[in-house]
Amino acid sequence: MSGYAGVPRTGAPGQVKEVTSLANPVIKDIKSLALKKFRDQQNAFLAEGLKLVIDALDLGWTIKTLVFAKSALGNPLVEKVAARSVAAGALVLEVSEKVLTSVTRKDNPQTVLGVFEQKLTALRDVRLSGSDVWVALDRIRDPGNLGTVIRTADAVGAKGVLLVGDCVDPFALETVRATMGSIFAVPLVKATPDAFLAWRKEFKGLVAGTHLKGAVDYRSVRFADKPVVLLMGNESQGLPEPLAERCDVLLRIPQAGRADSLNLAVATGIMLYEVRRSALILDGVPAA
Ligand code: SAM
């Protein structure tokens, strides 16, 4: 146990405990995080993999429990993460492969898992300036789409993602997996449609909606001189009228083939890169 700076193995927070039983109550609590009800009850969610756990700790997220495979003992990175978690007051569990597999329900699980406190930004704290971009998602349902949008928003330097209405849980395991760690880097806000529309009234920038019947080609707008909220519609229904009619512009991405629409995450990626290209600020390099 020297890798943990001599921390005693008593199982209390800030200490290390060895677990081999699937019936261990902490393991049961962690497994229950597969369901939103228990994620909300515990105000917690699960992130898998050493990289994600390191990203989260580096970005100041609060770790409640670190779980790592016995087989990872001796890996200096894992031991460092364990020591950081102990120092942060987390419970650290050294577990058997069998326990790890049961938590992740995967045959080849990651050797490190972290249980983190959920964190959301309040809508009232969302203030855009300069050429900031936020993505607003209306009732997004698919965890893979949400994770991909968060990852893409992170990649282009967007400032956050706003979840409008009844959206899939950003802290669902599939969403967190699809973000590849960007969940820890991109502020997330939840808002009802009414709250979003009230906030939108005060917002001085451009609200650019995307719509299959949009009147404006997405390449014809210059996004340079003000902040932008890019509003994307639900996977099956698109943007509802009350949201669509409050956009400053409704943009369309032209399509040539038989597909009636683009996948939501793909459309968001195209739009985000266009906003950035048009504002000439991606990496500070003017578009060619
Ligand atoms: N059946 C839905 C509809 O009628 O809008 C399709 C929704 S589409 C899968 C999900 C979202 O992606 C849309 O609401 C819109 O925000 C965006 N989107 C997809 N393809 C688009 C396109 N060609 N032009 C503009 N937005 C698009």
Automatic annotation (TrEMBL):
Entry keyword set: Methyltransferase, Transferase
Annotated InterPro entries: Alpha/beta_knot_MTases, MRM3-like_sub_bind, Ribosomal_eL30-like_sf, rRNA_Methyltransferase, SpoU_MeTrfase, SpoU_subst-bd, tRNA_m1G_MTases_N
Domain RNA 2-O ribose methyltransferase substrate binding intervals: 46-122
Looking up Pfam families in the UniProt record yields: MRM3-like_sub_bind, SpoU_methylase
Query: GO MF annotations for this entry?
Result: RNA binding; RNA methyltransferase activity
Q: Name one GO biological process term.
A: RNA processing
What GO cellular component entries does it have?
Answer: cytoplasm
For this chain, the family text in UniProt reads: Belongs to the class IV-like SAM-binding methyltransferase superfamily. RNA methyltransferase TrmH family.
Tell me the protein's name: RNA methyltransferase
